[in-house]
Amino acid sequence: MKVCVIYGGMSTEHEVSLQSSKNVIDNLDKDKYKIYPVFIDKNGEWIHNDKKLKDIVEFLSKMDVVFPVLHGKYGEDGTIQGMLELLKIPYVGCNVLSSSLCMDKVYAKFMFEKANINQAKYIYIKDENIYVNEELDETRLENDEIVKLVEEKLKFPVFVKPANSGSSVGVKKANNGPELIVAVQNASIYDRKVLIEEEIVGKEVECAVLGNNFPQASTVGEIIAADTFYTYDAKYNNKESKIKIPANIDEAKIDEIRKIAVKAFKALDCVGLARVDFFVQKDTNKVYLNEINTMPGFTEISMYPKLWEYSGLSYKELLNKLIECALDNVKRK
Q1: How far apart are CA 171 and CA 159, in angstroms?
Q2: Domains in the chain, start-ordered, CATH in brackets?
Q3: Phi then psi for 210, rounded to 5 degrees?
Q4: Which member of 35, 84, 139, 247 has the lowest number of beta carbons within 10 Å of its beta carbon?
Q5: How far apart are CA 159 and CA 197, in angstroms?
């Protein structure tokens, strides 16, 4: 079977994709698959065997399945999924709708609300400080008005995030008004919508989901960050950051999180795979859904493959399952 592994990309997570794809390629069953690596550079050029692809459509049309190991914009947001749908090529991971919804943290929150899934309180602003309220009315605010709004609706500290970004790129914690304005300006570099969320103090945990019609949830892993929160640097550069599998929480709470993970996966119409991230509040032990990642990291330290490995599914077997899901998804359509 011809498997095209696409990696790199034009997002801020380009380097993470390089690490993920190396592990995917190394662990794909060489007896079962003929692997065609395709690198997308930061300018959007497609390269195979050190040569620029002159006809991308012709090349992809020869593949049996595509594994887009792309994180962030243009890879995890429905963009490449839409292209592959048009070409009628099976691909690993979520479809166009679920990819774009999960990538956009604001619209994902709308869907979680509809599904009655508990999450942190939030507001969002867009395009030069335009605040959008619950009725979707828009008001342009000055900086001091944004600070006042956060104090009234959320209270400090808060987390400020670009709506469309991953690996904590562009995310900052703000403890006061001046820090908030700097954080909003920073997040605006990466996206036109900026999400501002209340802080949930407690454990940060993650659950892996796998499958199509009847998705299965792994056990739950815990993030032990070497920083005030799980920043990009803490994830990929700081050796003091650790993951603990299973998480240091009781079995009943693990089961609760697994059920919510599958519910969230279904609520956003996901297929194939996703990593669902949560907080378990310190004082109340209450579970808060944070976000869904439709193409989680596959690096040596990434939680998604490690959670399934703990559950008895090797890296190689996991990749086989993901390709099976991709082919099964075509039959379902």
Answers
A1: 7
A2: 2-92 (3.40.50.20), 102-117+201-332 (3.30.470.20), 122-198 (3.30.1490.20)
A3: -140, 130
A4: 139
A5: 5
First-last CA distance in the chain:
21
**Are β-strands 65-69 and 2-8 bridged in parallel, bridged antiparallel, or unpaired?**
parallel
b/e map 174-195, b = 16+ CB within 10 Å: beebebbbebbeebbebbebbb
Please state, as a whole number, how many other Cβ atoms lie within 10 Å of the Cβ of residue 328: 16
Calculate the alpha carbon distances from 111 to 37, 211, 263 in Å.
Answer: 35, 20, 11
